[in-house]
UniProtKB/TrEMBL annotation:
Top EC group: hydrolase
Protein name: Kynureninase
GO MF term list: kynureninase activity; pyridoxal phosphate binding
Pfam families the UniProt entry points to: KYNU_C
Domain of life of the source: Bacteria
């Protein structure tokens, strides 16, 4: 690799994923480097929405639920997301926000082992995850133990036999550190616990194998690496072996075995359908479904390979910047697809970069996050972003 724009241009010209980048609606001259916060729209999204509103809703009115497949959308889109995270069919539903799905998943996980009174939560997780873990602990009268991920194995050992639900983030939202999902899931289960992984910064970013890794439950976000749009519905994965015992707290009528009978009491549907809640956000769901197409066509593995190499290029380009420290682990197996830099005045720097069309974000007080999603970020984008950063810092 060479730290010149010519080299970046040659790499970009030879990039087999370059055709996918053209399918995203990103303004000319803008560098979309915050796909870990809000992915840009794929060209198929406005087409799908236009079709959903004019032809389906406008053309068929309420018949859209059947004629246009709206009723089955949570499971259909769920299966498509399932393929991206290594889940066989019938184990993922799409709907609600990530926060709601976290509440649903953590409560159900705790109820799978009601005699285990310790709820373990990743202390470095996104605030909503931590707030919800605390709320579930209050609701079910559990003892909440928050731990940094580094200390998780020790905490599991100390509470072996008492551990119930364990909520962890697969990729740290601040530092981009990727945790060992397979190894930690096994450790959680050895301690008697039920592993709930938050895949918000991992789904569509890194190859996942939730089935092979024996993950119990997982939740993820629709608007980050899946590019489903602002407020896109989230997803919930539950391993098939748990379906029969899954006592989800949000018992809406869509999760009923016979929703149109409208009878008492609540009888959960078979399979993952019991994890449906109420009427799904169809327009957002269809936008998310259309957004998956470029990622499915490119393949998570290819996107991940390129993202790893883009980050290595970034590491090399920032190496001589005074006062800039790379917080994200450098080993590819230990990081997701966003890179976090520590630098003074990160908030002001991010603001200045934004003015230059370099869309990154900051986590106060001193972290700058740069998302290198190989699906639409190019080698020249990385080169130009660092050139702008260099000028801003000067
Ligand atoms: C983005 C993100 C969320 C977002 O939750 P919403 O309900 O969509 O606001 C939750 N948890 C993690 C770890 C996230 O990265």
């Amino acid at each position: 690799m060479e730290l010149t724009r010519e080299w970046a241009e040659r790499e970009a010209a030879a990039d087999p994923l370059a055709t996918f980048a053209k399918e995203f609606l990103i303004p000319e001259g803008t560098l979309a480097l915050n796909g870990n916060s809000l992915g840009p729209p794929a060209a198929g999204v406005p087409v799908a929405l236009e079709n959903a509103v004019r032809r389906q809703w406008g053309g068929h009115l309420i018949r859209g639920w059947w004629d246009d497949g709206w009723w089955d959308a949570p499971e259909r889109v769920g299966d498509r997301i399932g393929r991206l995270i290594g889940a066989g069919p019938g184990q993922v539903v799409v709907g609600e926000s990530t926060s709601v799905q976290l509440f649903n998943a953590v409560t159900a996980a705790a109820r799978l082992v009601p005699e285990h009174r310790v709820l373990v939560a990743d202390a470095g997780n996104f605030p909503t995850d931590r707030y919800l873990a605390a709320s579930v602990a209050r609701l079910l009268d559990l003892h909440l133990v928050e731990t940094p991920m580094d200390d998780l194995p020790g905490v599991l050992d100390r509470h072996a036999g008492e551990v119930g639900a364990v909520l962890c983030g697969a990729v740290d939202f601040r530092t981009g550190e990727l945790w060992d999902v397979a190894g930690l899931t096994a450790a959680i289960q050895r301690a008697g616990g039920v592993a709930v992984w938050d895949l918000s910064h991992a789904a569509g970013a890194v190859p996942l194998r939730v089935d092979d890794d024996a993950v119990d439950l997982a939740v993820g976000c629709g608007y980050k690496y899946l590019s489903g749009g602002p407020g896109a519905p989230a997803f919930l994965y539950a391993a098939r072996r748990h379906h029969g015992d899954l006592d989800l707290p949000i018992t809406g009528w869509h999760g009923h075995a016979d929703p149109f009978a409208m009878t008492d009491p609540f009888v959960p549907a078979a399979g993952i359908t019991r994890a449906r809640t109420g009427t799904p956000q169809i327009l957002s769901m269809l936008a998310l479904e259309a957004a998956l197409e470029p990622l499915e066509a490119a393949g998570v593995a290819a996107v991940r390979d390129k993202s790893i190499r883009l980050a290595e290029y970034l590491f090399a380009l920032v190496a001589d910047l005074d006062g800039v420290e790379v917080v994200t682990p450098r080993a590819p197996g230990r990081r997701g697809n966003h890179v976090t830099l520590r630098l003074p005045d990160a908030v002001a720097v991010a603001e200045a970069l934004l003015h230059r069309g370099v869309v990154v974000d900051e986590r106060p007080p001193d972290l700058l996050r740069i998302c290198l999603n190989g699906l639409y970020v190019s080698w020249t984008d990385v080169f130009d972003a660092v050139a702008h950063l260099r000028e801003v810092l000067r």
